[in-house]
Structure formats: structure tokens, C-alpha cells
């Protein structure tokens, strides 16, 4: 996997936050309800990544993924799609809500096909929000990959779905509103060195 890049603010504005659709068949075990990472390929230092059930930390159902390695890890799948079709990735994510240390050493990126989005480095703690990103399939497979590090806390991930864009209709709320709400638009959005690189 190549180096992950950050998107400039205009690209952030194009990404929506909405209500997660029902679990799509394209992603295997996107809700982690198997209680493990079945269907996913793990990479990097994933020793502390786990699927867990904990009151107040699971978004939906019984399990959510807790991702918090010290040096960075990945979670990925190769999806069977139709070339030329646009697909929408939807997922819910939290940065250890209630943990005052959650804005420590952390980074989060997601890639769908040729589209990559990264949160600013050392992002603040926040409760679950629903995020979407769209990508055009240029072949009959589409790579989905999450890359992250979080020390001393955890990213909480759940309800990962990929659907054709026509079937996924996010609400008009934008990433910009999320970032403004956290008060991080400005210095946090400056271009910095690339955050994560995995081979």
C-alpha cells in the first residue's frame, strides 16, 4: 500500500456526514458482528487492534472495532464491483469519546479506490459520527483501506458499508461543520508531512 495523502479543505467540504444505510453485501463483516476481523486483512503493527463489546463504546449491535496501535496499522478489503460505477463508502467513527487523552498521538486515513481522506494529525476526542466518501471504480475491484495509529487511546469503527452511489443518500451536513464544531479549521488544516506510510 502506498503513502497516504491528506486532502485540502475543498476536498473535505465535498465529503458528507449522514445516516448509515443498511449493511451492504460488498463489504464482508463491516459491522464486526462476527466478534473478530473475519473478512478483513490486517497490516502493520496490529497487535493491540481488537473487536470488542463494551457498554457505551459500541455504536450498533454487539461489537465495534477498537483500533489503537502505537506505530500504525491497516484494515483492508478488496471489493468486487462494476467498472465505471461510482461507489459510496459509509462508516461510523469515534475517537475514544470521554477519554481526555484521546487527542494525543493519533492519525486516521481511509482510502476507497483512488480517493483518500485523512483527519488532521492528533485529532480531538469525539463521539460517533457517520462519514461518507465516493470513488469511481476503474476496474472490477475496488480497494478499501483504513490506516490509523492512536496512542494512548483508540479509534472506534463500525457499520462499514459500500454501495452504488445511487443507493447511498447522505444528509447535507458536511465535514466542514464537524471540523468547525471542533474548532480545528485553521492551523490543524495546514498541509503537513505525510502521516502514515505502509508497504
UniProtKB/TrEMBL annotation:
SUPFAM superfamilies: Galactose-binding domain-like (SSF49785). InterPro entries: Galactose-bd-like_sf, Ice-binding_C. It comes from Edaphosphingomonas haloaromaticamans. Keywords: Signal. Residues 1-24 form the signal peptide. Pfam families: PEP-CTERM. Residues 168-192 form the Ice-binding protein C-terminal domain. This is Ice-binding protein C-terminal domain-containing protein.
Amino acid at each position: 500500500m502506498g503513502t497516504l495523502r491528506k486532502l485540502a479543505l475543498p476536498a473535505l467540504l465535498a465529503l458528507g456526514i449522514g445516516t448509515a444505510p443498511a449493511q451492504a453485501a460488498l463489504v464482508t463483516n463491516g459491522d464486526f458482528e462476527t466478534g473478530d476481523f473475519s473478512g478483513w486483512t490486517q497490516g502493520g503493527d496490529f497487535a493491540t487492534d481488537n473487536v470488542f463489546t463494551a457498554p457505551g463504546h459500541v455504536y450498533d449491535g454487539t461489537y465495534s472495532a477498537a483500533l489503537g496501535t502505537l506505530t500504525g496499522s491497516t484494515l483492508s478489503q478488496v471489493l468486487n464491483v462494476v467498472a465505471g460505477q461510482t461507489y459510496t463508502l459509509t462508516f461510523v467513527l469515534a475517537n475514544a469519546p470521554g477519554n481526555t487523552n484521546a487527542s494525543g498521538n493519533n492519525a486516521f486515513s481511509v482510502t476507497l479506490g483512488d480517493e483518500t481522506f485523512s483527519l488532521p494529525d492528533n485529532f480531538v476526542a469525539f463521539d460517533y459520527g457517520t462519514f461518507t466518501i465516493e470513488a469511481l471504480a476503474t476496474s472490477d475491484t475496488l480497494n478499501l483501506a483504513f490506516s490509523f495509529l492512536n496512542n494512548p487511546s483508540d479509534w472506534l469503527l463500525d457499520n462499514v458499508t459500500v454501495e452504488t452511489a445511487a443507493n447511498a443518500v447522505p444528509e447535507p451536513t458536511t465535514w466542514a461543520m464537524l471540523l468547525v464544531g471542533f474548532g480545528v479549521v485553521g492551523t490543524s488544516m495546514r498541509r503537513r508531512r505525510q502521516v502514515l506510510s505502509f508497504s
